[in-house]
Design a protein that fits this description.
alpha+beta, Alpha-Beta Plaits, two-stranded antiparallel sheet, 2 helices, 4 strands, binds iron/sulfur cluster
Length: 54
């Protein structure tokens, strides 16, 4: 299953602190960097907008 980040990212960067291997910031919005990164689960849990999902 592929990880996705929906529209509505507010650019807070919390997910990249939690999962720097899996997510990067691109022009003020989060973007999946490595779809296989295990820490994406945790990033999805802590995103205040709840827009990171499989
Ligand atoms: S935690 Fe959520 S709202 Fe914040 S940068 Fe990541 S995807 Fe965007």
């Amino acid at each position: 299953m592929q990880w996705k980040i929906d529209e509505g990212c507010m650019g807070c960067g919390v997910c990249t602190f939690e999962c720097p291997d899996g997510i990067e910031m691109d022009k003020g919005a989060a973007k999946i960097k490595d779809d296989t990164s295990a820490c994406l689960v945790r990033a999805a849990q802590i995103c205040p907008k709840q827009i990171i999902h499989q």
